[in-house]
Structures
1.
Amino acid sequence: VSGDIYPKLPLSLSEYEELAGSVLDKPAYDYYRSGANDEITLAENLQAYKRIQLYPRILVDVEKRDLTTTVLGQEISMPIMIAPTAFHKMACPSGEIATAQAAEKNQTLMVLSSLSTTTPEEVAASTSGPLWFQLYIYKDRDLTKRVIHRVEELGYKALCITVDAPLLGRRERDVRNTFSLPKGLTIATVGDYLEKAMAENAKNSSLNVYFTNLLDQSVTWRDVEWIRSISELPIILKGVHRTDDAIRAVEHGFDGIVVSNHGGRQLDTVPATINLLPSISDAVNGRLEIFLDGGIRRGTDVIKALALGARAVLIGRPILWGLAVGGYEGASAVLRLIRDETDLAMALCGISNVSEATKDLIGYRTA
Amino acid sequence: VSGDIYPKLPLSLSEYEELAGSVLDKPAYDYYRSGANDEITLAENLQAYKRIQLYPRILVDVEKRDLTTTVLGQEISMPIMIAPTAFHKMACPSGEIATAQAAEKNQTLMVLSSLSTTTPEEVAASTSGPLWFQLYIYKDRDLTKRVIHRVEELGYKALCITVDAPLLGRRERDVRNTFSLPKGLTIATVGDYLEKAMAENAKNSSLNVYFTNLLDQSVTWRDVEWIRSISELPIILKGVHRTDDAIRAVEHGFDGIVVSNHGGRQLDTVPATINLLPSISDAVNGRLEIFLDGGIRRGTDVIKALALGARAVLIGRPILWGLAVGGYEGASAVLRLIRDETDLAMALCGISNVSEATKDLIGYRTA
Amino acid sequence: VSGDIYPKLPLSLSEYEELAGSVLDKPAYDYYRSGANDEITLAENLQAYKRIQLYPRILVDVEKRDLTTTVLGQEISMPIMIAPTAFHKMACPSGEIATAQAAEKNQTLMVLSSLSTTTPEEVAASTSGPLWFQLYIYKDRDLTKRVIHRVEELGYKALCITVDAPLLGRRERDVRNTFSLPKGLTIATVGDYLEKAMAENAKNSSLNVYFTNLLDQSVTWRDVEWIRSISELPIILKGVHRTDDAIRAVEHGFDGIVVSNHGGRQLDTVPATINLLPSISDAVNGRLEIFLDGGIRRGTDVIKALALGARAVLIGRPILWGLAVGGYEGASAVLRLIRDETDLAMALCGISNVSEATKDLIGYRTA
Amino acid sequence: VSGDIYPKLPLSLSEYEELAGSVLDKPAYDYYRSGANDEITLAENLQAYKRIQLYPRILVDVEKRDLTTTVLGQEISMPIMIAPTAFHKMACPSGEIATAQAAEKNQTLMVLSSLSTTTPEEVAASTSGPLWFQLYIYKDRDLTKRVIHRVEELGYKALCITVDAPLLGRRERDVRNTFSLPKGLTIATVGDYLEKAMAENAKNSSLNVYFTNLLDQSVTWRDVEWIRSISELPIILKGVHRTDDAIRAVEHGFDGIVVSNHGGRQLDTVPATINLLPSISDAVNGRLEIFLDGGIRRGTDVIKALALGARAVLIGRPILWGLAVGGYEGASAVLRLIRDETDLAMALCGISNVSEATKDLIGYRTA
C-alpha cells in the first residue's frame, strides 16, 4: 500500500488496529481485540514472532517471486487466508460480504464463521472466490447436519471444525461491557433457531443462548468422525495445540489442522501458536496440511510460519480492522499490505517461491 | 460471578485486590499485601504462573466436570482451600467467622490461623464445615499443648505447623507504618496469655510480644515429633521449600506438607512455590499429600499446581480482599469466582475431573 | 574527547545521536536512524552488546597500547572504519568530503556509498587517505562496469558489494514522511543516468527510480564473479548473515565479507550482527577477512567484535550524527571518541594490541 | 534498626542511598554513585542478586546465630567489611575517621583507600579496630615503598592491591560535572607529593594528576611480587575477574583475592561479581581467602556470597550513604542494619553460623 494510493491509510497491520480502535464503538472493539483472562496468550502470540530470527540467503535471483500455493488442492495467490471471525457487520454494514469480496479481489480464500452476521447463502452469492465454512457441533445434531448440507450445496469447499471451544473463554472486557450483539444483527446461519430458543429463555442475549444452549460440550473424536460420515467435504480441525492430538488427526484421516488458540480468546496461558508449530510439523511429517493462525501481523511472520511447517496462515483480527477502517476497501488493503510485505520478505530472505521457506531460515533469540 | 448477581463486583481476584486497597486503611492493606524486604518472592509467586504454559487436549467430553477431591480423607467440593492468614477482623467486623461461613458455603475447608482475631471456639461454633488449625510452637510447651488439645476437642481435623517462621520476616511497609493490631482486636487464641506478657513488657505491641516472647526459634524435627506424640490429629508441615526436607517429612511419617513461602513474607528471594513443586512431587512420589499456596489467582493457576503434583491449593490474600470488599458475601464470591475459573479451565484443558490434571498439560515459556 | 577541548560536545556516541536529532530536519533524521518495519533488528543490534560480557585480565603491562591493524593489507590506525551510508550532504553541506577528511585525520579508511551526494571523483580529490567503494550491481551492466572502472582509476582500493538489498527494506518513517532527497542533492555517482531515467518516469523521486529501475534483483554468485573478472580490485561482500554463505564467499575466492544487516534497514528480525559473528568466524577460519557493522557504539563493542573474530568494524550512523553536529569537526570527534574508548577498553581488558583480543575475554549474560 | 531507635532513618540500604542523594551536592553524589560508561555493570551487580534464589532449610535450631568469622586470621563480628572508597570527607566532615569508628563500633574491619582524605596516621590513631590498606602501585617505586612502610608501622594488617585500574574508568557523570576534589580536601596519603606534581602541571586537578602521573600502567605480576618482597604484610589482590588469574594468585602465594569490578566503575559490561564467584571458588579450592564486593545491599546478598564461596564481603557505597546521612552514626547504622538483615536471613535460611552457608542453599531463576 503505497502512500500515493491510500495517503491516509495505515502503513502496517498494527496501525490498522490503532485506527480501527478510534472508529469502532468500545464494546465492538473490545469484543474483537480481547483475549481470555489476563490476555497472556493474546500478547504471547505476537511476542513470539519477535523472538524468532530470520537468517536470509544472499545472491539468489529473486527478480520474480511466486507467492501462490494450494490449500487442500485449492490454488490461492498467496499463503494467507482469512480466518473465521464473528460478527463482521459490527465492523461495517456490508459485513461478511465485504470480506468475501476482499478475499476474491486478492485471490485468496475466506473461512466463513458460524457466528457470521450474514447467511452462508448471501456470502456465497456475493463472490466467485473459494470459501470454507467454520463449524461448531451443536447439541442438536439435526441442526448440525442441516447446516453442513446447506454449505455443501452452496459450494463451500471444506469444513473447518472448531475444537478448542467446548465452552466460551472468559473475556473480561466483554463481561464488563455486558457485550451483546448490536440491535438488528443476528447470528445469521442459525437465526430462526436462535429466535425460538431466545423466546423460551427471555432474559439471555443471543450470544449466551448460542453458547450455552447450542454448543455441545461432550463432542469427542467420534463426533467429528460422524461429521465426516455425513459430508463429502474435506475436514480440518481448528484449535490443535498438542502433538498427540495432531497425530490423532492424522490417524483419523482428517485433511488438515489449524494450529490455533482462537486468537488467545479461549484458555489463557497456552503457548503462542508459532511455538507449537515445529514439533507438530515434525510429528505430522506431511501426512496432512497444517495451517496456523494467531499473531500474524507482518510478512516476516508469514515466512516464519511457512519455514516452520505451515502450508498457509490465516489472519483474523487484521481483517476486522480493515473492515472497520474502510469496509471492503479496507479489508482489501490489509490483504494487499500483508501480501506486499510477504513478497518483500521473500526477496530479502533470498527465496523466490513459498516452498523455499525452510527451517534453515530460522533461529531463536535466547535472551 | 456473573454480571447479573454482583453487577459492581470485581471480575477477577486481582480486581478484588484493587478494590480492597481502596476500602481498607493503609496499615491494614499494607500488612496484608506486603512481602519481605524487596518483595521479590512476592512478585515471583505471581509471575511464575505466567511463564508456565498449558497444552490443552481437544475432543474430550467435558460436559460434566467434577472438581471434588479429598484432602487427608476429607472431601471438599474443589481443590482449593482457605490458607491461614492473620487478623480477619481488620478486613471486616465478623472476621474469621465470615471466612468460615464462606468456606462452608463453598463446601471447602478453612485453615484457621494462630493469629486469628476470633477464638477457635467461636469459629468452630459458627460452621459445620471442616476446619484445620495452623499452629506455631511456643517456647511455653504447656501453652502449646493446651492450644492443641483445645482445637482437638473443638473438632478441628488437622494441625498445620508453620515451619518457615522461627523469626518474623521483615516487611518494611509494616515498619514504616509502625503497624500494630487496631484497638479492640486481639490474637484471640492466646489472648489471656498475651495480656499478661504485655503487662510485663509494657512498651511493646502484642504482635512484637507474640513473636519475640512466644515463638520458639529452637524448634527442630524432634519438636514436631513431640507434637505428634501428644495429638491424634494428622499433621501437615507448612513452609517446605527443599526436596530433602520433603523427604524428611515423609520419613518422619507426617501426613502432608504445604509447599509455601508464607506468601513471600519471610525470606525474600526464595523461589516461587509453583517452581519448587515438580521436584518435591517427584521426590515425595505420593507418600504424603502435597499442598501449595502462594500466588494462586486464576483457575489456570489451580490446574497448573494440580498438574505439577499438588493435591489441592490454598488461597490466602484473595480471601482477605473478599472480606474487605464484602465480608462473608465477598469471601464467598471470591471462592466462587476461583471455582468457576477452575471449572472453565478444566473444560478448556480437556479434563473432566481433577485427577486428569497431569504433567503433560504443562510447558515452560523459555524467553 | 575531554571536557576541556569540546566543552559543549556529547560525551558518547549516543549523545551525538541525541544532539543530531535536535539539529536535523525530521525527514533527514528519520531517514538516517530508521530501521525496517518494527525496528526489531535495529534495537537488537545495540541490545546484543549489552548481553555480552568482558572478562578482563589483570597485571598485564598496558602502558603502551597499539590499535593499528591492517585491512586487506592497508594499514589503519585503529580497527574502526567508516561504513558506507547515503546522502552525507543532508547532514552537512560539505557532505562526503567532510567525512573523507575526518577519516584521513584519524588515519582510517572510508567506504564511499554508491548513494553518496558527492562524486567519487570529488571525494578522491579531497583526501590522501585510503578509500573503498560500496557498489550496487545495476541492471545496466555497462553502467556498472563504467562505475567500477571510474573508482578503480581514482585509486579506490577495494569494492564492497552490497548483497542484502535486492529490494529496498521498508522503513515506515520514510513512507510516512514521503521521504525524498532534498532539493539540490543528487545521487552523484550516477547523476546523469538518473536524470534521464527520471525524465522518462516523471512522477517518481530519484530514490525510487534508483532502486526500482537501476538495481538488479536477479544478481547471483555468477554476477559477483563477473565483477571480479572485470576488476583488479579486492572484493568484499557486504551483508552476509549465514555461515553457508560465508563459506561460499571463501570458496569463490573473495577477499572479505562484512557481517552486516544494513543497520537493521533491510529484513527486520534478522539477528544482531555480533551474534552472527562467532559461528561465521569459526567457519571461515581465517580464509578471508571478516568485518562487521551494526550497533557499534562503545569501545567495549569494538573489543567484543575483535574478540569474536572481526578484523575490524565499521561505524555508520554515528558518523552521520557527528556530521550533523559539527561537520568535519564533528565526524572527527566521533572517530576520536570511539578510538579513545577502544584504547581505554584495551587497557582495562589487559591487552596492549588488537591481536590480543581473543575469545576468552567473552561471556554471555544468560538472564 | 527498629523504628523506635531511628524513627526517621532509612529502613534499607537503598533508602540510605535515596536520602544521601538528597543531602549531598550533585557532583559528590554523582562521583560516588556513578559507574563507567553505560553503567551496565553497575546495574548488573545489583540485578544479579535478584536472580539468585535461596532454598531455606526448615526445623533447624536457630535460636543462637553466630555471625563471627576470621579474615586472614583476624576475627570480625560479622562477614561484612568496609570496602576501600575514596574521599569520605566529601560525605561528612570527619570523613574516614567516622568510618573507622563505625567499623570499630560494629567490630569489623575497614580497608582504607589510597584516595582517602585523611592520612593513614590519623585513621590509625582514631581507632583500635583492625585496618587494611588499599594500595596503588605508583610509577615512583620509592613513593610506593614509603607508603607501604608507613602503613606497616601504623599497624595496618594487610595490603589490598588494586589490580583492575591501570587507567581510570570513564564515568561520564564526572566528566559532565568536571568533577574535582572540593576545596580544602586532599588525597592525604600522598598530599605533599601531589602538591609538588600539581605545581609542575598547573592546569590539572589533583585527581587527574594522581591517575595520570602517579599510577603505573605497566604493573605486572613481577611488581606485586616485589611488593611482597618489601613487606611482611599479607597481600590481597583486589579486582580479580577470571579463574586463570585467581589460580595465578594462588600459585604466586598471595593470601587473598577480592572478586571485584570496582563497583562497576572501571570496565563496563564485565559480569556481576556474584556471578564470577562460583567458578573462581571452585578453581581456588580453599588455597587462599576469597572476598567479594559489588552490589551487596541485603542480608540475603551476604548469605548468597558466602554460600557461593566468599569468606566475607565488603560494602562500599552504602557506607558513604550512611556517612552522608549521619556521619559516624549513619555509617554505624548502615553496618548494624546489614548485620541485622544477615542475622535474620541466617535464621530464616536455617543456618546458625556462617560456615553453614553452603551451595545447596542456592538456585538460579531461569526466566
2.
Amino acid sequence: MPGAPRVIVVLSGNELLDGRTRDTNGAFVTDDLSRRGAKVTELITVADDAERLDAVLRHALDAAPDLLVIGGGLGTTHDDLTASCLADVLGVPLAENAQALGFLEERLRVLAHRRHLDFDEVLAMARRQALLPAGSSPVPPAGVAPGIAARAGGTRIFALPGVPFEFEAMWATIAAELEHDDFFPDVAVRMLRMYGVGEMQVAPLFDELPCDLLDLGIKVGGGEVTVRLRYRREEAAERQADAVVAALEAGAPVFSRDGRTIDEIIAGELRGSGSTLAVAESCTGGLLGARITSLPGSSEYFVGGVLSYANEVKADLLDVPREMLAQYGAVSEAVAAAMAEGARDALRSDYALAGTGVAGPDGGTPEKPVGLVYVACASAAGTAVHRGTFPGDRETVRTYSSPAARHLLLRTLSP
Amino acid sequence: MPGAPRVIVVLSGNELLDGRTRDTNGAFVTDDLSRRGAKVTELITVADDAERLDAVLRHALDAAPDLLVIGGGLGTTHDDLTASCLADVLGVPLAENAQALGFLEERLRVLAHRRHLDFDEVLAMARRQALLPAGSSPVPPAGVAPGIAARAGGTRIFALPGVPFEFEAMWATIAAELEHDDFFPDVAVRMLRMYGVGEMQVAPLFDELPCDLLDLGIKVGGGEVTVRLRYRREEAAERQADAVVAALEAGAPVFSRDGRTIDEIIAGELRGSGSTLAVAESCTGGLLGARITSLPGSSEYFVGGVLSYANEVKADLLDVPREMLAQYGAVSEAVAAAMAEGARDALRSDYALAGTGVAGPDGGTPEKPVGLVYVACASAAGTAVHRGTFPGDRETVRTYSSPAARHLLLRTLSP
C-alpha cells in the first residue's frame, strides 16, 4: 500500500528473550498500528544491554521510519537503559526534565501514601525516571514512569514503559494524537477466508492482477487460507480490490467474505435457525468443544458433548455398537458416523459433530497411520463423513481435526 | 551466567507484524535456547521486504553472534526472500543445491500423490526452494521446504521454514547437533512449580540469598508460579541453587521439584495406581479434556467425559437431579459435586473431575459474578469441591478453571 507510514517497534527486556514472559506489547501495538493503516517493518526485542540497545536504535533510525515506538527500560534499576541509549543515539545529553519530574512527584505522592512509604525516599529512588534526552518531552504516565517523546529527522519517537497496562494506555493517548495529526491514512480492510486449499493454489489466482495499490496478506493455518486486502479508501484501489476478490471467489472455496471466522458463521447459522449442536470427540479430547464454547453466547446453541476417548464410552454413552468397534476399529468411517448419530440422540440436538483419529505419536499402523482422522456430521437429513489425513505431530493432528469437523458442519448447514 | 553463547533470532513474515498471526516460533526457540544456556540478545521480526531483511541480516551479523537463527521466508512465493537476502549479505550467488533438490523431490512426490496433483507441475512451482546461497547446505525438511545451514566468520547460521511444526521439528535436529558439538555450556536447570501463591509471595523468599552464580527466572500463569534456576554445573553454583530450593520448599506450596508439569505428575500417579479418570465440563467446554489428552499415552488412564453445557445434559447424561439444578443453580457446590459423581458413575472411572462456573461476559449476578467457578473431584473416598473466583475475561476464567480442577485431583491423588 503506497503512502502507509512506516513504523519500527523496539522492545527491551531480558525477560522477553529467555522464556520467562511472552510478549504482549509487541502483538498489541503492531496489531493496532496495522488496523490504522501503518506498515510495521520491524519488531525488535532486545536484551537489557546498552551496547545492543544502542546498536538496535541506530539500526532503526538508519531506516528513517516515520515512527519509532520503544517499549520497556524506563524503570528505576540499572537494567533500565532506554533514556540513556536514546540520548546516545540522538547525540544529546540526559537532562532532568521539569515536567517529567512534576508527573513523577504527583504519582509518587499517591504511591507513598498508599503503601505508607516516605515520599522523599521514594522520590530519591525513582528520580532518574525524570532524566530525558535533552530536547525531548515527557509522555504523561499511566503508572508512575513518564514516557519520552522525541524526534530524529523525520522520525517521531515514543518510548513507553513495558508494563502492559501502562504501555497500552499510554499508546492509546499517543495514537489518538497521531490520528488527530492525520499521521495514519484512511484505510479499507477486506478479509476473505477459504478452506480446503493451500497457499500454493490460492496465490496464483491473483498473480496476474494489478495489485500495486493493495497491501495483500495471505495467512495459512488449520487448513484455512485467509487473504487480507488493505488499501487507501479511493476508487482506483477499490477497483483493484474488487478484481482480486472476484478472482478468489471464482477460483477458491471461499466460505467467508466479511472476515467472520468459521465459528462466527456457524454461530450465526445455528442462531438463525434456532438449532442446537452437540459433539462427540475422540482424538481431539475436548478441543472441538473448547473451540465452540470460546465464543461468548455459545450456550444458545451448544448443548454439550461426549468425550468418548475409551471404546467403552463410545458404546455406553453414544450407543456405538460393540460389534462395529470390533469389526472396523475406533478410527473408521462407520464409527465416526455412529458417534455423531449417538451424540445427536443422547444430547437431543439438531446437529452433532464427531471426530475420531490417530493422533499419535503411537498407535499408527500401515492401514491407519498417525494423522488419519474421520469427522462426521449428523443431522435430520442424514450423516456426512469426511476422511482426512493430516501431517505432523500429535498437536497438529488434533488441531487440524477441529476445523475439519467445523467445516463439515458448515457445509451441512449451508450446502 | 558467564560464557553463554550469544544468539540472534530473525523471523520474517508480514503476517507476524500486521496482527494476523501471533508469533510462536520466536517464543519457542528463545525459550529452548535459554534452557540450553544460550543468551538470546535480540529477536527481530521483519516484514517481507528485501531491503529491510537485508538490513536486518547485516545488523545481526555485525554483532558477530555465535548463532543466527532465521525463521520464515523459505516458501514458494515472491514474498519468500530469505535465501536470496542471505546470499546477498554473505556476498555469494544463489545456486541450485543438488541435495536440497533431492529432499524437495522426495517430499513433493508424496504431496502430489496425496493431493492428486501432477508431480512435474508441483516441482516446477516449488523448485526455487532448492536455491541456496552458494557454499551453504540444506537442512532436511520436516514439511516440504529444506532449511539452510551456513557460516559467516564465527557465526553459525540456520534458516528454517516459518510453519511452526516444521520450524520446531527442524530446530530440534539442529539443536541436537549443536549439543553434540558442545556449542552449549554445561548448564544445570532446576525447575520448581508451585500452585496457590502469587509472584509477590514467592520473590521475597530468595531476596536475601546469594544468587550471583544463578540465572533466576520466575514465570506466572494459570495460577501457577514456576521458578527456574540455571547455572553452570559447578560446586559454588550448586550450593547457591540448593539454598534457593530449600527456601522455596520451606515457604511456598511447591508441587513439582523436578520440572514435571501438573499433567505429567497426574499421569504418573494414575498410571502408577492403574486408575482411570473422567471429566464433566460445563464452563470449560472441553478445555480440561483437551489439556489432559494433549499428553501422548493419555488413553491409558483417561476414559473420556461429558461436556454438560446445557442443564438438560447435566440431568440426562450425568444424573444431576433436576430439583438440585432448580434449587441451587448450575453454578453451585452441589451441582459441581453431582457432576463429578455422575461422570464417575456414567464413565465407570476411578476418579472424575468436574467444573462449572460463570465464564462471562454475560450471565453474572451479584451472588454469582463472572469468574465464580466450582471444581469437584469424585473418587471412592468421596467428593471434594473447591470454590474459586478468577479475575478477567471469558478466556482467562476458562483457562484458570482447568488448573484449579487438575490441582484438586492432584491433592486427591496424593494428599
3.
Amino acid sequence: VTQKAVRLTKGEDTILLAGGLPAPELFDSEGIAAAFQRVLSDRRVGDHLQYGVPEGSHELREALAGITTRRGVGATADRVVVSTGSQQAVDVVSTALVSPGDVILVERPSYLLALQLFALLRARVVAVRCDAEGLDPDAVEAAIRRHRPKLIYTMPTFQNPSGRTLAAERRAAIARTVEREGVYLLEDDPYSELRYDGSSVPPLAASAPEQVIYVSTLSKVLAPGLRVGWITCPSRLAPVLTAVKQAKDVHCSTVDQQAVARYLGDNDLDAHIRRLRRAYRPRRDGMLSALRLTLGDVAQWTTPDGGMFVWVTFGLPCDTGALLRAGLDAGVTFVPGENFFADRPQRNTLRLAFTCEPPSRIHEGIRRLGSARHRLCGAPRG
Amino acid sequence: VTQKAVRLTKGEDTILLAGGLPAPELFDSEGIAAAFQRVLSDRRVGDHLQYGVPEGSHELREALAGITTRRGVGATADRVVVSTGSQQAVDVVSTALVSPGDVILVERPSYLLALQLFALLRARVVAVRCDAEGLDPDAVEAAIRRHRPKLIYTMPTFQNPSGRTLAAERRAAIARTVEREGVYLLEDDPYSELRYDGSSVPPLAASAPEQVIYVSTLSKVLAPGLRVGWITCPSRLAPVLTAVKQAKDVHCSTVDQQAVARYLGDNDLDAHIRRLRRAYRPRRDGMLSALRLTLGDVAQWTTPDGGMFVWVTFGLPCDTGALLRAGLDAGVTFVPGENFFADRPQRNTLRLAFTCEPPSRIHEGIRRLGSARHRLCGAPRG
C-alpha cells in the first residue's frame, strides 16, 4: 500500500502528501531545455555521447564543489564524485566503508530508502535516540563505544521523515566525537537550501572534514528527473569511492552532467531556490494550520524550519498502515511511519509532504486525513 | 597503469586500443539531439523532470522489450527494468540473487568490471574453463555440482575480453543444465548486434527463460554517454529487481529515458547498426592483418565474428603489465590480460579494441605494440 501511495502521481483528485516530490510547476523547464540544447548543438557533442570518467565531468564537479563550499564545507573538484542522486551517493559511500555484519548507526526514525539500502548491504543497523532537536550527542557517543560502527548515517537538516534539524551545539559535539573516535559519518543533505525560517546551521562536515562525508543532490532544488547528486569526501577516500562508483555503473549520463554544468554556469540557481522558498513556505504554513484545525486534539507534529516534511504522532492508538488504506479511499496519500524504523516501528506515526500540492489542496488533504482517522480510530476520550 | 590506459582518450598521437569505446564519429548526434529537443519542448516536460518509477518509463520499457524480442528472447515491458548501462544491470541482478560468501561462476577470462563488482559483493568467484568456443558445458555442470553457485555470469557473444562466441549447441546444453539444476544464469549481451561474419546465435535466455536473466545496453549501438541499459527477467523476479534498483539510485534519468524512447520511435536503430557494422568490420580485419604481420611469430589471438575485442596470448614469456608501460611510451594503449582473471592471472595475455580508431591507425598501433614487445621481451627463439 505504501508503494502504491508513493507511486500515485497521476490521480487527478487524489491529494499527494506522500512522496517528497518538488512542485513540478516550479521547474525551470526553459532554462533546463536551453542548457541541453547548448550541449547537444555543441561541436563537441561526440564527447558528450561517449564514455566519461567515473568520478564525473570536471566542469560539473567544479560547479558542485562551488555549491558545497558556499554551504560552508570547503570543497575542491578532486574531492567530488558525481552520483545518480544522493541515493546512489549513500550506496557508494556505504558500499565502500561497510562490510556485511558491520554496524551503521542511524537516527530513529531514519530515511526509508537508506534503511532499505543498508539491509541490502547486510549491515547491522542500530537506531539512536532522537528528540525535538535531533540526535542526542551523548546517545551517539554511547552507541559508538558500544557498537563500534563503521558508519553513522544522519540527515541533520530538515530530516526525512521528521523535518527536524540538529542544533548547532549538538553538531559541534558530534563532530568532536567522530573525530576523537575515528568514526566516519555520512551527512546526507538534500534539503538545507529549502529554509523558510531561521538562519542556516553549518554542516557537520565543516567541523570534522576528515571524518564526515557530505552528500547532496540537485533533485530538490533543480529537478529530480536529472538524477544529479554528489559526494564530497576527504582526499584519501576519493580513489576508493571512484572505484566503487565505476563498478556500480561506470559513470552517470554525460549528457545530463554537461547539461547541468551548463545550466549552473548560465543561470542563477540561488535565485531559483529563493523562488522555491517563497512558494513552499506558505505550503508548510498551510499544512501546519490545517493540522491544528483538524488533528489538534488527537496528534502532535513537528514544525520544520524548512525542507518538505512534517512528522505526525497520534496520541491515541492508530495504525497508520490501516489509515493509509482509508486515506486512499478518501483521496489523500501519506507514508505510514512504520517504514522509517530500523527496529520496532512506532505505528502511530506518519510522514506528510507539503511541497507538491498548493495550500488549498493541502487543507483539503488534511481534512480528508482527519475524517479517515476519525472513521478508523474514533474520537478522543475525555 | 591500466587505469591510465583506459582513461586516456584525448592524447592526439596515442593510439587507443584499450577501452571498448564506440567510434564517436559514428554517433547519430543529430538524431539524438532531435530526440532530446522533442522531449524538452513537449508540454509534458514537467513530468520528464519529476521523479519517475524505479523500473523505468513505460515507453522506454516497451521499446526495449521490442528490441529484446527481435533478438529471440520473448519480452514484455513488465519484465523489463531500465538500468544505468548494463553494468548497473549486473549490479542489480547480482545484489538481488547473491549473498556474501555465495559462489558466482564466471568465464576464464571474464569481464573486468563484473569481477570488480562481484568482489564488492563479497561473492566467491569461481572461474570455469573456456576454449575457443567459449564455456565448456561439462565444466559448467561439474562446477554447479561442486560449488552450488547462486549465479552463473556469462557474456556468450563476442565476449569481453576474448571476443569469443559460445557455440549454439553449447548454449542448448548449458540452458538444459541450468533449468535442470535450478541455477540462475546472467546473460550479459552488449555486443551481439555488432556481427561482421556468420549468422546470429540465439541467446541462452531464448532456451531457458525461467532461469536466465538477460541484460543488455544501448551503449555500443547508440551512445554510451546516455547510460541506457536494461534487464529482462522472469516475471517472478521483476518486483525484487525493481526494489533493488530503487534502493540503489531510485531510478534512471527520466529525461534520458524519454529521449531514448523518442529516438527509438523516430529512427531506425537497425539501419544505424548496419552502418556501425560496415564501419567496424574493416577495423577488425585491419587489426587481424596487422597482428599477422607484426606478431605472427610470437603470439596467437582470437578471430572474433563481431564485437569490439581481440584477445592476444604471447607464446614467449611476456608480462603485459610491463608491456603496457612500454606501449604508453611508444604511443599505444591496450588492457593487460591480468585484469580479466578472478584467479591466477595469465600475464602473457592482453585485450585489444578495434572500434575507436580507423584502420590506418590500428595498423600503426599494432606496429608500435610489436616494437615495444620486441624491446621488452626480445626475439623469438629458433
